[in-house]
Amino acid sequence: MRRKIKVLHIITKLAVGGSQENTIFTCSMLDNNLYDTSILCGTERDEEGDLIGMAKDRKVPLFFIPELVRDINPVKDFTALLRIRKFIKNGKYDIVHTHTSKAGMVGRLAAKIDGVPVIIHTVHGWNFNDFMNPIKKNFYVLCEKIAEKFTDKIIVVTKEDIKKGFKEGIRNKEKYEVIRSGIDLKQFYQRDCNIALKTEFGIKKEDKVIGTVTRICPQKNIEDFIKIADIVSNKVPNSKFLIVGDGKERNRIEAKIKKLQLENRVFITGVRSDIPEILSIFDVFVSTSLWEGLPRTIVEAIACGVPVIAYAVDGVREIIINRKNGFLMPPKDVMRTSERVIQILNRPEIGEYIRKEAQKSINEFSVNKMVSSIAKLYMKLLYQVNQSTIDKSNVY
């Protein structure tokens, strides 16, 4: 009987997020007659919770390295490198596939040291951006340049990430492969409004709901969402606002809500597992992120038939065609974004048009398509390794 292809996915932590969901989907949906897949990750936990339960429900083998942490820590990082390298050596893996910056750097280096035949890294949005300290940004760019040298393929979820990589000197075009983040679309296809959920959140049946699904952190820029709520609530009396998620900036955002006297208008739900049902009560979805890879929450909103208004950053521009399947706004332009929200709330025909057009544009984000594309890439790279081995054996 032919031995299964052994694949190890390494990710810094299984926090609630798109990169983590994609990793779990990939491991659980690859053909288990061909592949033996598992996940190796750190043990750090976030306020938003984690997806360990999801991985276990999907019967994905999980292994943990406590020293694999997000922040730079020379002692822990070196220890993690040694432990990951030993784990890879004992497991005799054919493919090591890394995700997120720290796991991507340490995991790829460990795989290279151990001579793993195929090394792949997925960029779920680069870990550097123009909003961070230049010294920190340059350090992250340097790390990515080094890691690229021993990477066979760099999967990016958007074409924009290739441009950003080239701009910063990560320019080996042959190594890039675009594979979109995938979601389970059938969970999100248009649903009837869940009135019971409106009641749970203290929202009346006739109220208009403007919402976002996000982490409450600097990247997601929730402060702008609160400013939008302040403007819109003065123009649309029956408008209510939902922030679905949690994060390290929650206390600061709650203080901002209180300062603007919006406690009866803006509600933070915390982490929820019933996202499709919650999206069904949204009249408008608003994203105020300052940088993104390919935000799956926007795709989920589109699949649910919710009109989306989003800041025009990074991969968002590859999901939304302005005025066709959603609206793109200049980042930080709170006033214009608010005006667009008010327009959609007051003119239902605009939302209906956007809803119909948006449904035509989301099939490329199917989780089945993502996993199929990754499987084809695995086979292609393994074939190239085997051919290279054969060719070398014929050299006298």
Overview of the molecule:
The structure is a single chain. With 396 residues, the protein is an alpha/beta fold. It folds into two domains: 5-182 and 366-393, Rossmann fold (3-Layer(aba) Sandwich), CATH 3.40.50.2000; 185-363, Rossmann fold (3-Layer(aba) Sandwich). It has helices at residues 18-29, 52-57, 74-91, 101-113, 134-148, 159-167, 195-200, 222-235, 250-259, 275-279, 296-303, 316-319, 334-346, 348-359, 367-393, and strands at 5-11, 35-41, 62-64, 95-99, 118-123, 153-156, 176-178, 208-213, 239-244, 266-270, 284-287, 308-311, 327-329. The strands form two sheets. A seven-stranded parallel β-sheet has the order 3-2-1-4-5-6-7, with helices on both faces. It has a six-stranded parallel β-sheet with strand order 10-9-8-11-12-13, sandwiched between helices. The radius of gyration is 22 Å and the shape is globular. The mean pLDDT is 92.
